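sorry for the late reply, my laptop died twice this morning and i had to redo everyting from scratch. anyway the thing you sent over, i finally got around to it. pasting the sequence first so we're on the same page, its 211 residues, then the predicted structure underneath. double check i copied it right bc i was rushing
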Amino acid sequence: MITDSRGRRYNVEMQVANKRDMDKRARQYLFKLMEDGFLRRRQEYEELHAAYVIFILPFDPKGKGLKRYSFVYTAKEDPSVELNDGSEIIYLNTKGTKGKMKPGLDDLYRLIEGKPTSNGKFISRVKETMNNYRRTEEWRKHVMNTEEVAEAAKQLGMEEGKKEGLITGVQNLISVLRDYGEDNQNILQQLKQKYGNTFSDKQLEDFLKQS
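ok and here's the structure:
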C-alpha cells in the first residue's frame, strides 16, 4: 500500500494470471484500503481520502483492447452519473492498443513487454529501482525460490511422463499376452514380475480389468 502527500491511498500490483475472480479480488483490495483509512472520531466525511486499486496486467482483462480500464460507481439508469466517493479500480493493460497514455506509462508497458524504452525520467527511475532491488537479499531469495519451484515442476513433469510411459507399457504387454492366448492369471503373474517394483498388486489387477 502507498499513501501520497495528499493522503490518497493506493494498492498497486501486477497480476500475471487472468483469473475469473480478478474483479472480486480488486474489490477486496479496495475494501481493505477503505477500512485502513476509516475516519477517526470527530472527523468529517469530506476528510476521507481517495482510494485506488491498480492492477498492471500483461493481458487484456475485458477483451476490448483498451490500454486502461478505469472503474468507478455509476448509476445504472444513466452511466454518465458517477458516485463521487473517491474510489477507483484501474486495470492497466500492457497488451492494449486503444486509448492514450502518458509517455511514462507507455514506457512502462514497453518495459514489461520486453520492448525498447525511451530514456525518460520516469522509466529511468523505474530501471534504477529494479537494479537496486536485484542487489538485495530479498531478491536473491526470490530468485532461488523461483528456480527451486521451476526445477521441482520440471522433475514432477519428468516423473509424470515416466509414469505414463510405464502405464502404456503395462497396457501393451497385456494386449500382446492376450493375443498369444494367455489367461488373466498368467498375465497378472508376468505383470508382477516385470512391474511389481513400480505398481502394487491392486494397481496391476485394475490395469488388467480395464484392458
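Helices lie at 22-36, 103-112, 121-134, 137-179, 184-195, 201-210.
thats about all i looked at so far, will dig more tmrw
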